[in-house]
Amino acid sequence: QVQLEESGGGLVQAGGSLRLSCAASGRSLRRVVMGWFRQAPGKEREFVAGINWTGYSTFYADSVRGRFTISRDNGKNTVYLQMNSLKPEDTAVYYCAATGEDSTSYDYWGQGTQVTVSS
Questions:
Q1: From CA 73, how far away is CA 47, in angstroms rounded?
Q2: Looking at residue 103, what is its pLDDT?
């Protein structure tokens, strides 16, 4: 089992930056893919970014590529999402997720952290 806890959300003006953190506990993140998803009001949850367990491979939704950066510190069991040049349409609840070991299915989810971008 993996427990995930997000932090770092908040209110920011358009053009600003935020860094989200996701602390994992319960087991090592070795061979676990980590990801960030988001859900805006009235919309389905969508993929934002992912990173493999070595950190050498990253994946982004087209809507955030070039503005967001995902990274991880396996020594601290923590994943980060640096969000720059934020837009009002980035407003959503952001969720951290983890796959099982050597799996491609996101089986573990955090409770989410609210990000609000004002225009």
A1: 21
A2: 82
